[in-house]
Amino acid sequence: MCGIVGAVAERDVSKILMEGLRRLEYRGYDSAGLAVLEGNGLHRLRVAGKVNDLADSLKQSPLKGTTGIAHTRWATHGKPSVENAHPHICKDQIAIVHNGIIENYESLKQAQIANGHAFQSETDTEVVVNQIYDSFSDTGNLLEAVFAATDKLDGAYALGIISPSEPGRLIAARRGSPLVIGIGIGEHFIASDVLALLSVTQKFIFLADGDIADITCDGVVIYDENRKVVKRPVSISELSHDVAGKSGYRHYMLKEIFEQPRAVHDTLAGAFNNGRIDETVFGQKAGKLFDRVKAIKIVACGTSYHAGLVARYWAESIANIPCDVEIASEFRYRKSVVHPDTLFVTISQSGETADTLAALQLARHSGFAASLAICNVPESSLTRESDLVFLTRAGAEIGVASTKAFTTQLVALLMLVTVLGRRLGMTSETEAAIVGQLQQLPGRINSALELDGKINLLSKQFINKHHALYLGRGLLLPIAMEGALKLKEISYIHAEAYAAGELKHGPLALVDEDMPVFAVVANNELLEKIKSNLQEVKARGGRLYVLTDTGVQLEKDDDIQVLKVAHVEDSIAPIVFTVPLQLIAYHIAVFKGADVDQPRNLAKSVTVE
Ligand code: M6R
Fold it and tell me: How confident is the model at residue 532 (pLDDT cuts 50, 70, 90)?
């Protein structure tokens, strides 16, 4: 999604803005631009392309200034083009960058055209810059103009605003879309997330919804949604400034896949006390709130939704607690029946996913017992608005395809169902077994990573494939779904996952010698069932690729290629089996020459609906 950077300093800010844009590239974008104030002049450069293209353009026509804003645009209204790229400018007086969607832009546009504005782009953003310009003409004060203009906007926005009439002033506004302020010494910054600014500061203020900030070299004054001055806490980021490096790996995604043993280890750190899970890892109030809980409702999107689906199997089989899982964009627009003893759980890597956030906001007024966010980003909107928080410690995830965030979400969810199950009759032996398995998990993931070489060789076979089926049963069905999502998002091969038992109810019609079928097979009570499903595929000439563990014996068969992970216990099997599926998607995408870390049309942080 769109990325914003802004700076006000006594030195040239163009390099800071460009470095910030590079650090935001992972979010996904299709055009880029920046504008700076030099004396009373406003200068802008935009490209329909990548930040590197903008850098080339800057070499041709250097821009320097002490106040500036910059942007990477992920197209929503209007195609990727120079005209639609940000910053947008009105009459050389106001320049803005925007992340979000203005829902009433059509009516504002009609009114502005009637007032004599000529539109230069197809974006919704242009109505914002015009609105600020009109208010600025009335008030003569940039801050007052932003107050007045934002009162007229419906929808979501994070904005950075500058004007040559007020050099040395940067106004930031936030509603619905994320925005942070970076605090320097005698210089200040804004950005869509902290990663963008780690090369210039570790100190951040997270704006609350409705906040507007007046930023100069001398300080930052924040106004809340009632336009009252407020103090927001300053946080020190623990992330190091080279967090966005690839550490020698060819892609962020590969680095992040290989970081999983560490990420899981860190997520488990401090979680156990005398062989039991310490429930305060979910927050100090967790014990009291969990005492009430008799059911779980999980809401999330994409990969995080798949984590929720695994949790449903765990919750009902291990902890005897009813669990319902729903896609956030569906939940938020549907009337649902709420049982008051239900824990509302959101799962999100970024903590800024617009649909998940809206679902949480709805849930807070719907009578749930409490809300819990499982999230990888401290101080994200989701964590700030939830009663309880479990922070996964995957570390910054840069690749658009979520990998280590997913496996650490699963770790958090297994711990959650265990502490809830305790209250509903789960034995201490079961809990001790789960704790033991979680402690083994980093090692088990390391063994799964050893399949990398084999998977690399195997993946060449898929370069010319256009479709793939993924099959799983029980706990491994959501893992098959996740494997299919990974493949389609980074290799652009159409992939679907099915419960293996559903094959004969339709998808079997697709199976022929051109259709690769990946099956994820656990060594559990469903083994014989899924073996029969594999025979159904084989009988139709399908190419089978079976991912299983060393405990499973399959008849030798030249038509079936088998990948085996070392023995893995049933409860942690979904986490371990995820890893080879990530590697399969990764290597196929690399062979196909796809942009693995920034797949087309996708964004890392989906901050608009
Ligand atoms: O940040 P979130 O976990 O809320 O994001 C949800 C989805 O957008 C995300 O998981 C998406 O599906 C990933 N690209 C999957 O790899």
Answer: confident
